[in-house]
Known about the structure:
This protein is an alpha/beta fold. The chain has helices spanning 3-18, 20-26, 41-56, 73-84, 104-111, 137-155, 162-170, 177-182, 193-200, 229-237, 240-259, 265-282, 288-306, 312-326, 340-366, 391-399; strands spanning 29-35, 61-66, 90-94, 100-102, 114-117, 122-124, 174-176, 188-189, 204-206, 212-214, 221-224. Strand 9 and strand 10 (212-214) form a beta hairpin.
Amino acid sequence: MNSPARVALSLLMAIYCVLPGKLFAASGTVVKLTIHDTIQPITADYLQRGLHEAASQHAEAVLISLGTPGGLLESTRVMVQAIENSPVPVIIFISPTGSRAGSAGFFLLESADISAMAPGTNAGAAHPIVEGRQLDPILKEKIENDAAAFLRSFTSRRSRNVAAAEDAVRNSKSYSDEEALKLNLIDLVSADDASLLKALDGRTIHRFDGTTQTLHLQGTQIISTAPSQRERLLSKLTNPDIAVLLLVLGALLIYLEFNVPGTVVPGSIGTLFVLLGLFGLNLLPVRHTAIVLLLAAVVMMVLEAKFSSHGVLAAVGIAALIFGLATLVDGPIPELRVHLATALGAGLGFGSISFGLAWIALRARRGKVLTGPQAMIGGTAIARTPSAPPARWRSAASSGRPPSGARTHSP
């Protein structure tokens, strides 16, 4: 190798050795996840998948754009554990302006390596609610203590304000972006993703396992990881209103199949809708007493079709159906419960259509047959040709002997 070639090679190696961080930073990536939904099992699956992909890509960080009213505590625990164990630093950013991290979202915000908020956002109001109802004092205290201890377990390790964070659990405190920054609940306030990554470049963070890591975010490429088709579909099914409507519509189609047998299509589609509705409800906390009410409503509807009660059984069945649908899902936030308008519409619609079909079927069974040989029974016939008894009857009458097979009666 000649001298100029050796000099060029030595120069390239020197640059590679002196500026390795810069070279890798220029080609680094940041995986972005967008969670603008309720916190439930499908959200947890999406987060875990995104963190796994970021680790496999050796990303510099995971940026989570968060906006949520809250959700299920069990799913929150799964997500917090995934964030704590992530080999890639996790940045949670409440964005865009106007978003919030309520209830379960506040737990996620405090669990991240870096917590940030956009101007005009808020977080907090993390008081636990079980089954959407008031709790007795002892159970309420136990649940509050458990949630507060869960929050303290990672807030203190993140060197954040434990007292202010716990206040969001015990007293439902909520904080604006400025208040959260002042109380050391978040690390910074930023307008958008680009300015956030620029502000964090070169910052040394303490990971949950006690190690330190310096963020190299300048020049990184943000790669968005969207929810898969499966996750989008299942996320829709975890909407209680959609799950209930699918269940009711499927039941109506199956009922139509029984009233008009052989059509096949209504029964097939109805079965699919019922299965999808049940699958969605299986992912949500369901109240068992509401299921009993729904079964009682079905029984009363069947009895009304069999025994006329002048509409009493029908009215009670519809009332039980509406109340059962309205209380079916025990979500901790309104977004994870069946809305009253949905329960009223589905209950009244199902009751009216099912009883209408039953009345038509009952009337058809009791009405006179209009076609076929059975329709001629009891009718008046006009003989167009002379009618005469059979020949054997005529010959028997002329001889004075009764015909074969005829019975005689003694006086």
